[in-house]
Specification:
The complex is a heterodimer of chains A (315) and B (233). Chain A is built from eleven helices and four strands; from the N terminus they run αααβαβαβαβααααα. Chain A is of the alpha+beta class and 315 residues long. Chain A has a four-stranded antiparallel sheet. In chain A, helix 3 packs antiparallel against helix 7, helix 3 crosses helix 9 and helix 9 packs antiparallel against helix 11. Chain A is rod-shaped, with a radius of gyration of 34 Å. Chain B is globular. A six-stranded mixed sheet of chain B has the order 6-7-8-3-9-10, with helices on both faces. In chain B, 31% of the residues lie in helices and 24% in strands. Chain B is built from seven helices and ten strands. Chain B has 233 residues and is α/β, with parallel strands linked by helices. Classes of the chains: A alpha+beta (315), B alpha/beta (233). Chains A and B meet through helix 1 and helix 8 of A and helix 2, helix 3 and helix 4 of B.
């Protein structure tokens, strides 16, 4: 009788099965130390790569807008009389007056003769004047937008035919290529981080399988399906990779804020001293929370594939 | 003991079954042909290395036959899809010679494992495990891990785990090897009761006195070949 009472009490104590019951002993086989640490390091690198991609994109947009809005105007035969619309003025003066009143032109400056000579130096030598060539007048124009170039060119033709308006298309393309390269490097870094993370999880999973081989074979023999066994591994590894990535992201954010503060004077981002959240681009704030979930997905998929592949050799 | 009410879906049948561990390895079982109808009881006898454990591994679906036709609980194993084997395994109870308990689980959880894998409600698991643990006399040891149990206690846990799901086929490899006479007799009573309820039972043993005390048909293996049945001699 006493044994029955005692047994009921003892059995009652073990009757509430915990939801995270660990039939395969994976808490010890898949340690919560090394793997999360490695994943945290990978997530840290992923954050830096992501920030690099966002920064490259922002910088490229900044460069593009500056380069596209910078126009160069060349007026051949600058001292000859202008067209009918510019009666009494030289061609250069007519263009200069037109630029001053042109909507969309923020500023216009005529380069000095020495500046023009310096620009042509690589082709004409250092003393272009002695060649008795009539050099064009050159204006450096800051426009509100690159689209101003088209209307400006048409207008200037009525003042001085043959005037050229260049929109710095070559620089625009080069900067575009440079920005694309930077973003591609950042994307490649992200892909590599994902690949290494996958490899790390796969190695950890195989180590876990090796450590629990007997237990797996026993539960397999008792009728556990591949899905049951792979699911136990996947649940454990999803939790570990999610936690590791979360730690990595949280660790990287302070560093990003410091970098953002240091680079603030060189960018169009809000100045140092503004609200903490505003120091980083909104798109980066939106992307950071997705990293732990992406890591969790990598953990789940890698564990499922690795365990199922190993189980497939069992009868 | 004699075959109880037979049924094709509760028995086993081997036709020319051979088993090799590896393509180049010599066969450990040679063209075995016999059948045990549902509800039957057989002793499996033979010297060490005769192939008893290999035959039990075949019947527990731990390996597939290299040749021949094997039918277990109504399923033709050579044509059964791998995905269909787990439900079949859940209808088979096994007592391993080396117990094969999970060292990180308590005795309670080891015994409960087959029921949990089958998706039984936890309340039912508790009731069934409670009953079987009382039967094998381990009520006070339910929280103990295998490393904390004696060899005999581990064997009783292994037996409890094998019978907890009331299997259609029960296979035991030297189940009394670590039990005293009293416990061995209790085990035989349990096996007889399961057999009476329709479970097909095959017990491999070296214990001749046990076989004498519980006469039944026997399969005798010698170097992987089925050489004789005591009834035939």
């Amino acid at each position: 009788m006493s044994e029955r009472v005692m047994s009921d009490r003892t059995l009652a104590a073990v009757s509430l099965r915990p939801r995270n019951a660990d039939d395969l002993g994976l808490r010890r086989a898949l340690s919560d130390r090394l793997l999360p640490l490695l994943v945290a390091a990978m997530a840290f690198l992923a954050v830096l790569a992501l920030a690099g991609a966002v920064a490259a994109r922002g910088l490229a947009a900044h460069w593009r807008s500056d380069a596209a809005a910078l126009l160069t105007v060349q007026v051949p035969q600058p001292d000859a009389p202008g067209e009918a619309a510019a009666a009494g003025l030289s061609r250069a003066a007519a263009v200069e007056r037109s630029l001053a009143g042109e909507p969309g032109v923020l500023s216009a400056r005529r380069l000095t003769a020495d500046e023009v000579s310096a620009l042509l130096g690589p082709w004409l030598g250092t003393d272009a004047k002695i060649l008795a060539l009539t050099l064009p007048a050159v204006f450096e124009v800051h426009a509100a937008a690159a689209s101003v170039a088209t209307s400006l060119s048409a207008r200037l033709q009525t003042m001085a035919s043959g005037t050229l308006v260049e929109a710095n298309g070559v620089w625009f393309n080069r900067l575009g290529a440079l920005a694309g390269s930077l973003q591609a490097c950042a994307a490649l870094a992200l892909v590599l981080v994902a690949f290494v993370s996958t490899a790390v999880v796969a190695v950890a999973t195989r180590a876990g399988i090796a450590a629990r081989r007997d237990a797996i074979e026993i539960v397999h023999g008792l009728g556990a399906t591949d899905g049951m066994i792979a699911g136990r591994f996947a649940a454990r590894l999803t939790m570990l990779t999610f936690a590791g990535a979360l730690a990595g992201v949280l660790g990287a954010v302070p560093m990003l804020l410091v970098i953002a503060s240091l680079t603030a004077p060189f960018s169009t981002a809000p100045a140092v001293g503004s609200a903490l959240a505003a120091r980083l681009p909104a798109v980066l704030w939106a992307a950071l929370p997705t990293l732990p979930f992406a890591a969790g997905c990598i953990g789940w998929v890698t564990a499922q594939v690795t365990v199922r592949a190993w189980l497939s050799v069992l009868p | 003991m004699t075959d109880a009410e037979s049924g094709a879906d509760r028995g086993i049948a081997l036709t020319g079954v051979s088993l090799c561990y590896g393509r180049a390895a010599p066969p450990v079982l040679h063209e075995l042909s016999f059948a045990v109808a549902g509800g039957g009881f057989r002793w499996l006898l033979g010297a060490s290395g005769a192939g008893k454990t290999s035959l039990l591994r075949l019947l527990t679906l731990a390996v597939r036959p290299s040749a021949g036709a094997l039918r277990v609980l109504g399923a033709a194993i050579e044509t059964t899809r791998r995905a269909d084997l787990p439900p079949l395994r859940r209808r088979i109870g096994v007592v391993f010679q080396d117990f094969r308990l999970l060292p990180h689980l308590s005795a309670f959880d080891n015994v409960a494992l087959p029921l949990r894998l089958a998706g039984r409600p936890e309340g039912q698991v508790r009731a069934d495990v409670s009953e079987i643990m009382r039967w094998v006399g381990l009520t006070r040891r339910i929280d103990a891990h295998p490393a904390e149990l004696s060899g005999g206690e581990q064997q009783r846990v292994a037996i409890a785990r094998a019978v907890i799901g009331r299997p259609a086929l029960l296979l035991a490899d030297e189940p009394t090897g670590n039990l005293d006479d009293t416990q061995a007799e209790r085990l035989m009573q349990l096996l007889a009761e399961l057999n009476r309820l329709g479970t097909t039972v095959i017990v491999a043993t070296h214990n001749e006195s046990l076989v004498r005390r519980h006469p039944a048909e026997a399969l005798v293996l010698e170097e992987g070949r089925l050489v004789a049945r005591p009834d035939d001699e």
